[in-house]
Design brief:
By secondary structure, the chain is of the alpha/beta class. The chain has four domains: about 5-210, no CATH class; about 260-520, Glycerol-3-phosphate (1)-acyltransferase (3-Layer(aba) Sandwich), CATH 3.40.1130; about 525-645 and about 680-700, no CATH class; about 705-815, no CATH class. The chain is built from 33 helices and 22 strands. The strands form five sheets. Strands 9, 10, 11, 12, 13, 14, 15 and 16 form an eight-stranded mixed β-sheet that branches. Strands 1, 2, 5, 6, 7 and 8 form a six-stranded mixed β-sheet that branches. A hairpin with a 6-residue loop joins strand 18 (about 590) and strand 19.
């Protein structure tokens, strides 16, 4: 190395060591990508920048990779270990030099012909100071999206963004493979350079995102839209107001909706949230993020569809995506969050606000739809909660299809028609801040209005929240899905709003249900929801420590050996470690006793723990139902087991968004039966399945975990048996609540989902689809009796007696026209 260059590097290193703090994105790159340190490595960087090169050198030294400044020696041939794809942009253009890039790459490829054992790894590396995509008009060609900086500008960038430096290592590419498969001529080299430039451009789009529109330009773009112009005229005509007043209304709606994304606010919130997460959470675990990276790199428009547990969801998902090297999405947030000062802050983080209902406001729905079209046209990723609101029970809610419909309409109308992919996201916690208020709301308390003081009170309650889980499910690309199921969908492209295609509503309903199933397919089991499941199954909500451990062993084996879905995550910990972690969270009460330590739930704790239990209810519901049937029948034929589960399955599938079809059930049941046999809980004698008496406690606890939901079904079917036609949903819910309240008092069971009105809507829909009732509401008494006979054998006799007695009392009072 020349002496002047040596001192130059020493000086630069001094500034870099002092000013630069680098982050590898994605954060777990070196855990997933294997760079062979025994093979020569050539680093490929986009721009001729010594600052980028020395910043890369720091990370190479930290992770044990070859020093990019030390040349490669191949049998006495000395070649640089780094390659710049673009020449440097000099302050004075006359000093710009022509690159020897083609010759250098050609030389490398030639060496692979003369040295058969040689295999040089070409590793593209993108070094970014800051991740701001910049602002400007969408079609402004005068300012390229990404541009080279000369030395002076680069140094200024180092000063401003030194603490915000990101390094992205791409998957290594084998030069041996290129030379063998494609040849070594210069045309191949030039093609390789072009592909590398495209790769870097795409990576920058993935990491920084598209250029952000200027807020006023976005407003003007929407106002001149023909669709909105037509809607404004309709508004003026229908409400008999002036055109100027209608335009003013449109401007107010756009201002109410639109986000005002700011990279500087993202930078600030990253530091604040980073400190908060390390203080509040013991870790945030991310799974299957690779599939999102692949979609982004292929140029898909990504729509994140997470479940909704807490207000933390908005922040934690954006934080995770940012640290995984992806652009935080624009988020559809409830208008209730648009209060000072939180609303302004959320807008700058990418939130756009949506009203609870669009009914009766055609102008609002048109503007919102056009705003979505504009976001997709710009290439922005989007996030919305398909459930509409936060789950109060821990179970997934029935999906709201309005915004999903608008997404498909936006895809049909978007000018660039980039393929849209829906990505389901499961968000799980070991502690949800709002759980206590959810329980109060289910029992009739009025929902507290979001505002500044409520936010302050919530911040004061922040404590150890345990671990968080972000699992990305199986993506659903809309174009292939529609092409496979609705071949004629392309005929609807560019149709106006008034010409809504006939296939749209059923397709949207099917897609919504599929997304809910895929969210549940990516569930995360953890110490809290597993222990909650175990203790809530006990009638006394109390068990010896050894009993809890035995049950944990059973559940972990079921989840690991018969996985519900490939995306489900199960903690890689021993049962003892899981229990200790759960106890540290202080959600359970421990009582010492000479005969053994007792772990229990108080009445209040039990109510709150049902929320966490419900997060993974669907994972263990089939083995629990198998255990419940076998425990309550002294010997049962496998075919009888199939038949009973087959009758109950549609209701469980609808309520819990389970993935198994009726055709898959026998094989699923067989797999669980085999696993329970392997655990020594069941035994097959001849053609009969029996419970093993020596381990009956474990099997009974597994069976008891499903009794709550079966009791609710027994209440509904008992009410239906006393009527000749289907109750209206509100009446059915009212009568069921009365029986549930009595059951709760007599048996000290306060189960939140028993009081959730939304659960009954899916139950009524399933009754119709499974032909328990016909189109005019008449009841099939034979089918009702058949399933009620099954349920009566699966729940405790004293509980069933209370249900039957209460049902008869309601019938008598109804016949006498007594209002209860």
């Amino acid at each position: 190395m020349l002496s002047w260059r040596k001192y130059y590097y020493i000086l630069l290193n001094f500034y870099i060591n002092f000013l630069v703090r680098s982050k590898i994105i994605p954060t777990d790159f070196f855990d997933k990508i294997d760079i062979d340190s025994h093979k020569p490595i050539v680093y490929v960087l986009p721009y001729d920048s010594q600052i980028d090169l020395l910043t890369l050198r720091q990370q190479c030294s930290k992770h044990g990779l070859s020093d990019p400044l030390i040349p490669i020696n191949i049998d006495g041939i000395i070649l640089k270990r780094y390659i710049f794809i673009h020449e440097r942009a000099h302050f004075l253009k006359k000093y710009e030099q022509k690159s020897d890039l083609v010759e250098l790459l050609h030389h490398y490829l030639n060496l692979h012909i003369s040295h058969p054992e040689l295999d040089v790894q070409m590793v593209p590396v993108l070094v970014m100071f800051g991740r701001s995509p910049g602002k400007g008009l969408r079609f402004n060609q005068d300012k390229p999206h990404f541009h080279r900086l000369n030395g002076i500008k680069k140094f200024i960038e180092l000063l401003w963004f030194g603490r915000d430096n990101f390094i992205h290592f791409s998957t290594p590419c084998s030069m041996r493979h290129i030379a063998t498969e494609h040849g070594i001529n210069k045309a191949i080299v030039q093609k390789l350079i072009r592909l590398t430039r495209i790769h870097f451009f795409r990576q920058k789009l993935v990491i920084a995102g598209p250029r952000l529109p200027i807020h006023q330009d976005l407003l003007k773009t929407l106002l001149v839209s023909k669709t909105i112009e037509h809607a404004v005229k309709d508004e003026a005509r229908s409400k008999k107001i002036s055109l100027e007043k209608a335009q003013k209304n449109a401007i107010e709606i756009i201002e109410e909706i639109a986000a005002n994304f700011s990279y500087e606010v993202i930078r600030l919130s990253d530091r604040v949230l980073g400190w908060i997460w390390h203080w509040l959470y013991q870790g945030v675990y991310v799974c299957n993020i690779d599939r999102v990276h692949k979609l982004a790199e292929r140029g898909y428009e990504i729509v994140y569809v997470p479940c909704h547990r807490s207000h933390m969801d908005y922040l934690i998902l954006s934080y995770v995506l940012y640290h995984q090297g992806l652009v935080p999405p624009h988020i559809a947030a409830g208008i209730n969050l648009s209060f000072w000062p939180v609303g302004s802050f959320f807008r700058r983080l990418g939130a756009f606000f949506i009203r609870r209902t669009f009914k009766g406001n055609k102008l609002y729905s048109t503007i919102f739809r056009e705003y979505l079209v504009e976001l997709f046209t710009l290439g922005s990723s989007v996030e919305y909660f398909i459930e509409g609101s936060r789950s109060r029970t821990g179970l997934l809610l029935e999906p709201k299809t309005g915004i999903l419909t608008m997404t498909i309409q936006a895809m049909l109308r978007s000018s660039n028609r980039r393929p849209i992919t829906l990505v389901p996201v499961y968000i799980g916690y070991e502690h949800v801040l709002e759980v206590a208020s959810y329980t109060k709301e289910l029992h009739g308390a009025k929902k507290e209005k979001d505002g500044l003081w409520k936010t302050v009170r919530s911040l004061c309650k922040l404590c150890n929240l345990g671990q968080g889980y972000i699992n990305f499910g199986d993506p659903l690309p809309l174009v292939p899905w529609l092409s496979q199921r609705i071949p004629q969908w392309r005929n609807s492209i560019d149709q106006s709003e008034s010409q809504r295609p006939s296939w749209l509503v059923p397709a949207v309903n099917k897609i919504a249900t599929t997304m809910m199933i895929r969210i549940n397919n990516a569930a995360a089991a953890n110490a809290i929801n597993l222990c909650a499941n175990i203790l809530l199954a006990s009638r006394s909500h109390a068990l010896l420590r050894q009993e809890v451990l035995s049950q944990l062993i059973c559940y972990l084996k079921l989840l690991r050996n018969v996985p519900y879905a490939p995306e489900v995550t199960v903690p890689n910990m021993t049962p003892e470690a899981l229990l200790e972690h759960a106890l540290i969270m202080k959600k359970f009460t421990i009582k010492q006793h000479p005969l053994g330590e007792i772990i229990l739930l108080s009445c209040d704790q039990a109510v709150l723990m049902t929320y966490y239990r419900n997060n993974i209810y669907h994972l263990l519901i089939i083995p629990a139902l198998i255990a419940c049937i076998i425990v309550n029948h002294f010997g049962i034929q496998r075919e009888q087991l199939y038949q009973k589960i087959k009758l109950l399955h549609p209701f469980l599938k609808s309520e819990l968004f389970m993935r198994f079809s009726t055709e898959e059930l026998p094989s699923v049941i067989d797999n669980f039966v085999i696993e329970l046999e392997c655990q020594g809980l069941l035994i097959l004698q001849g053609t009969q399945l029996y419970a093993v008496q020596s381990k009956s406690n474990t099997l009974t606890l597994l069976a008891d975990s499903i009794r709550g939901i079966l009791q609710r079904y027994a209440i509904v079917f008992s009410l239906l048996q006393t009527s000749s036609c289907l109750f209206h949903r509100e009446i059915l819910e009212q009568k069921s609540r009365m029986i549930t309240q009595q059951l709760s008092i007599l048996h000290d069971r306060n189960v939140p989902e028993f009081f959730d009105k939304k659960i009954f809507s899916s139950l009524v829909a399933t009754l119709r689809s499974e032909q328990y009732t016909n189109d005019i509401g008449n009841i099939n008494n034979d089918k009702i009796k058949e399933i009620l006979d099954i349920l009566s054998a699966l729940i405790y006799p004293d509980v069933f007696y209370i249900i039957q007695r209460a049902t008869l009392l309601i019938k008598v009072n109804t016949d006498k026209n007594i209002i209860i």
